[in-house]
Amino acid sequence: MQTKITELLKIKFPVLQGGMAWISEHRLAAAVSEAGGAGIIAGGNAPAELIREEIRKARTLTDKPFGVNIMLMSPNAEDLARVVAEEKVAFVTTGAGNPGKFMEQWKTAGIKVIPVVPGVALAKRMERSGADAVIAEGTESGGHIGENTTMCLVPQVTDAVGIPVIAAGGIADGRGVAASFMLGAEGVQVGTRFLTAEECQIHANYKELVVKAKDTDTIVTGRFTGHPCRCVKTKFSRSLVNSEKNGISPDEFESLTVGALRKAAIDGNIEEGSFLCGAIAGMVGEIKPAAEIIKEMFDMARELLKL
Ligand code: TUI
Question: What DSSP string describes 163-222?
Fold first, then answer.
């Protein structure tokens, strides 16, 4: 399936794996890239030198292109930006902010830049700043989310910019891929479906929560902080939302959630972890290799699109 995104990133299938903090490490990224997609290592809040090692480890597993996601709220964002430029990764995606100040550094290093945008205004600004494509991410996504839905956001962004648009949020099978193309996207970004890839290194408790999740089993925490985050409904995430309703202070909220992504992904700690995951989790039922996930998704999409 050739699109402007397969051309831009020199990949076989127009699918990017979501850059999920504490989750998207070299083995998952390499597996997705080996399968013909665009694997991504997530910088998250990690120290920059650790991400340099991750990049180098991924290179021992694949010679295909992969990228790094820079979470712009990270205190290490500047160092991470420099390391990806030094390592000359194929592409960078960004989240949770405006990457304008890093654009020149990355473009000079020959890196393709693909920011996540939650709305049309930032998409237009990113195009003017020299972005190669944008990811229009709907509120169905896991983790830090914007307000608009994939269905409403993607066609508005594709109408507003001339660069290729990648749809994200709520896409887990060929129907989601086909629908995204109908909305004008040239590619998709998939996070939640890859949580249950065999090569995804998260704790077994995390995978089990995603596999067992039903359509109503995600919840959004932290709306009052301005950084809403979608995760699996657990006793912990429900209690966070209840405390928010009861007027918890931002400091108290911060102290309850600090380290919660690591507690979920590495420790599988159901009591204190935030198991970030998209609203499509109810449709994710099987643990299988990334290559099979991608093949099934695009076999179905091609059939639906009569390609
Ligand atoms: O970044 C994500 N998803 C994430 S980041 C993350 S770590 C975190 N943990 C706790 C609280 C907050 C973050 C977990 N999941 N997705 C991409 C994304 N970017 N979603 C929304 C945005 C976004 C929001 C505002 C991008 C740009 C933006 O621009 C604001 C501006 O400066 O114009």
Answer: S-EEEESS--SHHHHHHHHHTT-SEEEE-HHHHTBTT--S-HHHHHHHHH--TT-EEEE-
Cα(56) to centroid(ligand 1), Å: 26
How far away, in angstroms, is 304 Cα from ligand 1 center?
A: 32
- Provide the 10 A C-beta neighbour count for residue 234: 19
Query: Nearest-CA neighbor of 78 among 55, 116, 51, 56?
Result: 51
Distance in Å, CA 272 to ligand 1 centroid: 22
Q: pTM for this structure?
A: 0.98
Give the domain ranges of the chain.
4-200+283-305, 214-276
Atom of ligand 1 nearest to the CA of 74: 7
- Fold category of 4-200+283-305 in CATH: TIM Barrel (3.20.20)
pLDDT per residue as tens, the chain (307 positions) = 899 999 999 999 999 999 999 999 999 999 999 999 999 999 999 999 999 999 999 999 999 999 999 999 999 999 999 999 999 999 999 999 999 999 999 999 999 999 999 999 999 999 999 999 999 999 999 999 999 999 999 999 999 999 999 999 999 999 999 999 999 999 999 999 999 999 999 999 999 999 999 999 999 999 999 999 999 999 999 999 999 999 999 999 999 999 999 999 999 999 999 999 999 999 999 999 999 999 999 999 999 999 9
Is 98 near ligand 1, meaning CB less than 6 Å away?
yes
Does residue 43's CB lie within 6 angstroms of at least one atom of ligand 1? no
Ligand 1 touching residue 137 (CB < 6 A): yes
Q: How far is the CA of 143 from the centre of ligand 1 (A)?
A: 8
